[in-house]
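Section 3.1: Structural characterization of target chains.
Under the original work plan, the team committed to producing a structural model for every single-chain target entering the pipeline before any wet-lab resources were allocated. The record below documents one such target. The sequence was received from the expression subgroup and is listed exactly as submitted; it comprises 235 residues.
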Amino acid sequence: EEYFAKSLARSLVAGKIRNQRTILQRNHVEPPVATLSGMREMADRAEGAGSLEELLGIEGNAARLYFGEFAGMIKVGEDAEGEAPAFDFEGRNRRPPRDPVNALLSLGYSLLAKDLTVACYAVGFDPYIGFYHQPRFGRPALALDLMEPFRPLIVDSAVLTAINTGMVTKRDFVRVGPSVALSPGGRKGFFRAYELKMDTLVTHPLFEYRVSYRRLLEIQARLLGRVLEGEIGEY
């Protein structure tokens, strides 16, 4: 079981890093070559990681590289009054998020965790028992495991769309002490961006047919079930 947990964790993290790299290539004005090659190296290293601790370190390094370039994917210039953009991004922070971009990312990840928790229940899994994320009371560890590769593809992408197309603007944020929260209108705008992303059709890498991301979440949960039952070799 420990061997299985490790190999599943390796493929989830490697997948996440590769998908982060893809998002950078698609959305960044000019992604630095060093960042892209660093991320490729981290994805390869994740596949060969010897322990979960090592994997966490690799995942953290890749996240630093990726979020270090995240601002380059935000295309909001100065507003009409010539004010600086509201969507400055210095890096990932949470609990509580301290800027609008982090507020959107945190909200998006919580929506995705909820949708994956539902997908786990739909296929008969206990979402609270994970392989990579250690079980803690009230934390859907398995949903968080399955979520790793989808974070960039669904949430980060929805955040960029919401900001870059004006579905969410700087007027949609409220500062409360050091933290930043979304107004009801801002939440509505972001929910729309998230739902649009969930309805986007993508080609499943294994079955090669087109499905929405929403359907894909359930397919991946079913696939994991088949891996656990020994029907297929790897996730």
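The longest strand covers residues 173-176.
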